[in-house]
Amino acid sequence: MGTVYVFQPEVVVHQDGGVLRVRRAGPPGQREELLQRPLAQVTELVLFGQATVTPAAMYALLEQGTGIHYLTRGGRHFAHIAPTENKNAPLRVQQYAAHLNLERKLAIARRIVQGKVQNSVTILKRRQADSTPITALGNQIAYCDSVEGLRGLEGVAARHYFAALGASFPADFAFTARSRRPPRDRTNSLLSLAYTFLAKEAQTALRIAGLDPMVGYLHEVKYGRPALALDLIEEFRSILADSVVLTLLNRDMLGPEHFDESQGFPSLTEDGFKQFLRAWEDRLMQTVKHPLLGQKLDYRQILLAQARILGKHLMGELDDYQPFTVR
Fold first, then answer.
1. What are the backbone dihedrals phi and psi of residue 26, each rounded to the nearest 5 degrees, phi first?
2. Left if phi > 0, otherwise alpha if psi is -120 to 50, otherwise beta: which for 226?
3. Measured between alpha carbons, how far is 49 from 141 in angstroms, rounded to an integer?
């Protein structure tokens, strides 16, 4: 597994002879080693809570292109240390130009919404749930003449989708509507966590591809919001994030005992987090054939492929952005 997750507080992450080591903080002789991994095999380091990364380890990770992510104990992503930005300045110039061109911005936003809707319909059909209200929005999306209108239609499609998906969750995880900040129930808590991890993966893919994660097309640009990362994850929400949550709950991999509600809203316990991350990594490592590239790729590779496909469109090498869709 290329991603290293560190849950324990009061630990030190350091590197020694090309090996990344995680040890408990403390006096010499009492520093229990919790994990070691060849540095070259670490593609991302994800820290929950207050772990310490030594300057030498940070330098070694960044030098090889490995990003470091900081999350709260509840799973909120609040910081990311990345290597120097990709040097493809001409691509970012085209990205910004397309954002400022209302016609190009609308065309890309429309393809993003169409990809999301198609994958949402596929997931509902797999669950034998009613996708008719979402399918009926197809013509409105195709002929919508503003990005604001597309956002409204995407919101309507999302409400229909979650209303239909609700019956797919077990009784202990009853779900009626999407809620966030904070999530009202366990299922919403899991969905929010999965979307956080998906957005993290998207930001990494976009940076590798040379794009600016902050300037997008469907999502409004706001201070601190990774708008393009949020754009990219739309077509993957149902097939990655929602799929992982459904797997965890319907296979009894998580139960009520894996949640802590002492903060006034449900969040995963440490054991629950570990279960979630196993399922998340398993899903990301699954391979499928990419419809445009004709190659079998795992989902991390597909996210990067989609970022690069967007880049090719922005540079004029592809007529349209082609979202990733499944059948």
1. 155, 180
2. beta
3. 42
Confidence of residue 323 (pLDDT cuts 50, 70, 90): very high
**Where are the domains positioned within the chain?**
3-81, 89-314
User: What CATH number should be reported for the domain whose range is 89-314?
Assistant: 1.20.120.920
Model's pTM, two decimal places? 0.85
Query: What percentage of the chain has pLDDT greater than the value 90?
Result: 57
Q: What is the pLDDT of residue 33?
A: 77
Please name which of 256, 207, 233, 228 lies closest in space to residue 302, comparing C-alpha atoms.
Answer: 233
| C-alpha pair distances (Å), 35 with each of 13, 78, 191 | 9, 24, 29
Phi, psi of 38, rounded to the nearest 5 degrees: -55, 130
Tell me how far apart the alpha carbons of residues 204 and 219 are, in angstroms, rounded to a whole number.
18
**Which CATH number is 3-81 given?**
3.100.10.20
Q: Quick one: which of 249, 210, 254 has its CA closest to 228?
A: 210
> Do residues 206 and 304 make contact, with C-beta atoms less than 8 angstroms apart?
no
Same-fold call for 3-81 versus 89-314? no
Nearest to 304 by CA among 212, 216, 205, 230: 205
Comparing C-alpha atoms, which of 238, 239, 218 is closest to residue 229? 218
Burial class (CB in 10 A: 0-12, 13-18, 19+), 224: exposed
